[in-house]
C-alpha cells in the first residue's frame, strides 16, 4: 500500500484492517491477482500525486476501501461493483483512462465508472444538492441500478468518516441529503440495515442532543432489556425445538431514528415506549416448506402469547414490491409488554438484509409496476418537475418511493398488484387490452360498480363487458396508471385507423363502380385542397359521412382533367425535355430514355425500387421522373391510363448508393421474436436498420421494418433469412409509410 506519510496513524490502522477483511470476504468473486493489480495501481497513483484528498480532507483510499467492504458485507458480492469502486478515483484523477479500464477490466466496469463519474461530478461545486443537480443525479442513477447502490454504500461510508469533521455545515448538509435522498432509496431497494444506519447518523449530525439522549438511555437499560429478551425467548425456543424445527432466534433493538419517530408520533418519553425491540426467528428450511414452517412458528408464538390482530403484517402471502418477505406479529409478553416477533427463513433474511442486490426480482405475483418500471419512471418524474426548492422536490420524491399499492383478486383467485388510486378500468386493461376496450363496469365483491371505481386491497373484481362498447376519449381522465393510459391511447388510435381504412375502402368502391382509376398524387392534392391536414382525418370524415362521396369523386375528376389538359393534352413521352442535374459530371446509376444519364429523378415510395429491380420511369405532373418497379402495385394503372408519360429506364451497371426499402413481417406475437429479427439484420453486412414499427393484435404481430441495402440480391438474401426465424409467417416488400 502507499507510504506512511500519505496516511494518518488512525487511517493506516483502518486501511490495513479493512484491506484484510475485503481480501478475505470477497474471495468468491475477486482473485488475489485482482487485488494485487489494483493495489499496485493505487500505490503508483499515490506516488505520482494522482490520488489526493478531496477539498474536505477525506482520504480516497480509506473511503473507497470502506465503501467496497460495505458493498461486500451489507449488499452482496458483485465483481463489477467492487472493482468499479476501487478504480473510480484512478479514472477521476486521470491516472487511468476509461479506455484502459475497458481494455483491462471489461466494458461493464467501464460503464459503471462512467455512471459514477457522471453522478459525482454534480458535487463539484458544493456539497448540498441543488434542485437541477438533484434531478440530473437521479437521471444518471436510472441508467444502471448498480450506480445507485454504490452511491448509497459510499454515502454510508462518508457518514461514518465525518463524525469528528471540523466543518459543521458540511456534516449537516451531508446528513440532510442522506435523510431525504439516500435513506429512502435504500428503503426502496430493500437495504434496510443501511437505511437504518443512514437515518441514525443523520439524526446524530442534525440533532446531536436528541441522539445522545436516546443512545444514553438505551445503554442504561441495555442489561434489563437483554434480560427481558432472554425471558421471552427461552420458552419459545424450547417449543420450537420440540417441534423439530431448525432455527436461529435473537432480539434486535430498534434504531434510534425509529425510536425518535415513535416518541414524536406518540408524544411520549422513552420510558413510555415499550416495543423498543423485536424478536426475530430465522428458519433453516427448504424452499417448498418455507410458508408452512413460518405459519407453524406463528401458531406456536400466538399460542404462548396473546397476539394483537391489528398489528399483524403478512408479507409472506403478498411480498413487498422490493422483494421483502416476512411475517410480523405483535404479542403481549411477560410483564404485559408488547413485543414484535418477525418470522422468516434464511433466504428471506438474506433478501431483507441485502435487498434487491441479493434478489433482484421476486416471482409469484403479476406486478404492473415493479422496480424496473419505477427506475424508468424516475426520468419522467424529474424531467416534468419544475425548478422549485431542492427539499420540496426531495419530499415529493420520497413520497413516491413510499407510495402504497393495492392488491386485488380475480374471481378465480389470481392476484394482481396496482398502484394506489388505480381504477376498475386500469384493472381491466391490466388483464387484457381487449377486455379493457369492451369494459362497461364490473362486480366488486359481488356489487355492481362503474369503471371509475377506485380499487381497494382485498377486492375481488369481475370485469363486465359489452360487444358494443368502444374506448372513449374521457377514459384517459379515468385511468390512473400510465400503462392503462398508454393502452387507451393505442386503442383510440386503432379506432381512428380502422375508421380511416373503412372510409378509404368506401371511396375506392365508388371509384370502381364508376370505372375510374384512382391516382394517389391527384387524391393527395384534392385532400390538401379541401383543407385536411392528414389523410387519416379526410378518410375519417368520409367514414362518418361528414363528406359526400360523390362530391369527392366530382372534384377528383375536375382536378385530373384540368392537369391533363394543361400539361399533357398533345404530348408524348418522347417530347418531354429530360432535365439534367447541374453537376453533369456526377456518375449516375440510372439510364433514362434512350441512353441519357444525370437526369433529375426520384425513386417512387409506393414500391421503393432498389438496384437490380426491373424498372420504368413515369413523368409526374411536377416535371420530375419517378422510378417505379415493373411489378409496382400502381404499374398496371399507370400503363393503362398514362402510357404516354412512361419512359424506359434501366440500371447503368454502376452501384454505390444505399437504397431505402420497407419489409412487412407477419408472425406470432412471441417473446423474443422482435429481438431475433433485429439481431439477424444487425449481423448482415452493409444492411442497416433505420426504423421499426410493430402492431400486435390477438396473438399476431405485423411489423414494418425500414432498412437500407445495396441491391436486390442483398435484400432477397435478408428476406430469406428472416423467413427462417421461428414464429415468422411471411416477409414481403412494402412501401415507405
UniProtKB/TrEMBL annotation:
Pfam families with a match to the protein in the record: ACT_4, HD_4, RelA_AH_RIS, RelA_SpoT, TGS
Annotated TGS domain residues: 404-465
Domain of life: Bacteria
CDD domains recorded: ACT_RelA-SpoT, NT_Rel-Spo_like, TGS_RSH
InterPro entries tied to this protein: ACT-like_dom_sf, ACT_dom, Beta-grasp_dom_sf, NT_sf, RelA/Spo_fam, RelA/SpoT_AH_RIS, RelA_SpoT, TGS
Entry coiled-coil feature ranges: none
Annotated keywords: RNA-binding
MF terms in GO: RNA binding
Listed PROSITE patterns: S4, TGS
An individual GO BP term: guanosine tetraphosphate metabolic process
Annotated GO CC locations: plasma membrane
Function in brief: In eubacteria ppGpp (guanosine 3'-diphosphate 5'-diphosphate) is a mediator of the stringent response that coordinates a variety of cellular activities in response to changes in nutritional abundance.
Designated name of the protein: RelA/SpoT family protein
Native organism: Barnesiella intestinihominis YIT 11860
